[in-house]
Amino acid sequence: MPAVLLLAALGSGCASHAPGPTYYWQSVTGHLRLMAAARPIDDWLSDPATPQTLRPKLERVREMRRFAVQELGLPDNASYHRYADLGRRAAVFNVVAAPAFSLQLEQWCFPVAGCVTYRGYFDEAAARAFAASLPAGLEVQVQPVPAYSTLGWMNWAGGDPVLNTFIHYPEGEVARLLFHELAHQVVYAADDTPFNESFATAVERLGGERWMATRASETARAEYASFDARRREFRALTGDIRRQLQQVYADASLDEAQRGSRKATVMASLRDRYAALRARWGGWPGYDAWIAQANNAGLASQGTYDEWVPAFLALHQQQGGDWSRFYDAVRQLARQPKADRHAALRGLTPSTTER
Questions:
Q1: What is the pLDDT of residues 35-56, one digit of tens each?
Q2: Exposed, middle or buried: residue 58 (CB in 10 Å: 0-12, 13-18, 19+)?
Q3: What is the band of 19 on the pLDDT scale with cuts at 50, 70, 90?
Q4: How far apart are the C-alpha atoms of 43 and 82, rounded to whole Å?
Q5: What does DSSP say about strands 82-84 and 39-40: parallel, antiparallel, or unpaired?
Q6: Pairing between strand 162-163 and 82-84?
Q7: Model-level pTM?
Q8: Are 274 and 291 in contact (CB under 8 A)?
Q9: Which end of the chain is more exposed for a tag (fewer CB within 10 A), N or C?
Q10: Would the CA dihedral through 185, 98, 131, 23 be positive or negative?
Q11: Closest to 68 (Cα-Cα) out of 227, 200, 225
Q12: What is the pLDDT of residues 94-144, one digit of tens each?
């Protein structure tokens, strides 16, 4: 999940729709309330009032945290050793936006965090109010986010906590999410959301597979395999739709009406093909809400998590599966100018791999 814009509170905004003092205030106070709600997992486990259904999940998270350090080389620090119940369905609510005929997400820039393709709010109503204030020509989504990373900046204060917003996910998904968020503390390239999210997604995928293969029960592995198969099919579908839309938007021979008509045809195809997938999945409704609000913003946002994953998987293999060497290679990429970095990633991407 995205790195939170708490870091942006250290300076003033520098983009269109520039954030003002109110935005920075909610970023700081929202995070401080989250941190104040967190207690060490050991305290939760020793507390007789802790629900019995929560205890085994917290114990499992402790095992995942050790695994992340010992098996994946992820940071051994204060993060994810505490737990907080926020009493809400998401940690933050991110606003993303894109033009009607583009998959280029709007950006908001900050002196510390750099430019990112989302704007996060701790209050859903505030996120929706901001979304409604954006220009009418933009397609907008408000996305509930179960977790975020402070990139290790808050480890001195207890680190990022485990949250109620994801602790009850299936085991494989909890593991993936923890590995993803910890990966953000390994490498972060300013002004390059697709690089950061694709790297973390590659770590979560590889780490999740290794956890499930070596630590999970047969039941959990079966559950994970089923869910992950559906996820891969859905991501392949939406990736194909993005490619089709990009072709439509890039076709200079089309006038606005023609472009709009072809876009509508592609989006209708998305809904039809999803309905076919859903039927083959036995009616599983997991992506219904996503499809119901599908637009350029949602498709482009999803693409930031997918774009360079094949390249990072290839780089991990190129480094012999050695996590330390892999992270060093990714750090080297992050230090390069953005254009050079992307050229290197294109060179790593297998030509036959679905993007």
A1: 999 999 999 999 999 999 999 9
A2: middle
A3: low
A4: 9
A5: antiparallel
A6: parallel
A7: 0.91
A8: yes
A9: C
A10: positive
A11: 200
A12: 999 999 999 999 998 876 667 888 999 999 999 999 999 999 999 999 999
